[in-house]
Amino acid sequence: MAFRPSQRMTSSLLRSRLNPSTSCPHPSRTHAAARLYSSSGEAPPPPLLQKLKGDLKTAMRAKDAARLTVLRSVLSATLNASKTASPITTDAKLVALLRKQQKASGDASAEFSAAGRQDLVDKEQAQIKILDEYVAGSGVEEASEEQLRTVVGGVITALTSEGAVEGGRAKMGDVMKKLLAPGGPLEGKNVEKSELAKIVKEFTG
Predict the structure, then answer these.
(1) pTM of the full structure
(2) Tell me, what's the pLDDT at 42?
């Protein structure tokens, strides 16, 4: 039987998409995101983030609704991340955020399709296409499955030689921490964490 979202779920999704004020941050929040990286003593913003902010102005002039929705959402998420222990400080982290936004739009598209709202499906697909454009043009290297397997195997070998394993088998959490640590083997690369975790699980059991 095809999945049918509950009335409450569908209504909530429809309200969030039909009412931009609930899903798109106010322009003042976008300006706040821009000021976030302008304070003295802070590292300059990632190049991709600078491009997004520039494209926001262009989209506003062109009244490109789909691109405005995407850019405002990403900049708002970047601002929110700045208030946590994991701020967006590199293009690689920003690409990871873009991919997260892609997944959210894909999930929403599936819900709207099940609800028979093709108009909203089209909007979500348009946003996914825009996100694809930024990911593809980011210049961030995307690690292949083969590369990930090689890196994971190397990290497990290193942990074993350091005596950092128990019972002759490395723990999945320790391997993931090593892989994703600042300065680690995957720094600066576009990596899907769920795919990485799947590979690590295969190695560690």
Answers:
(1) 0.62
(2) 60
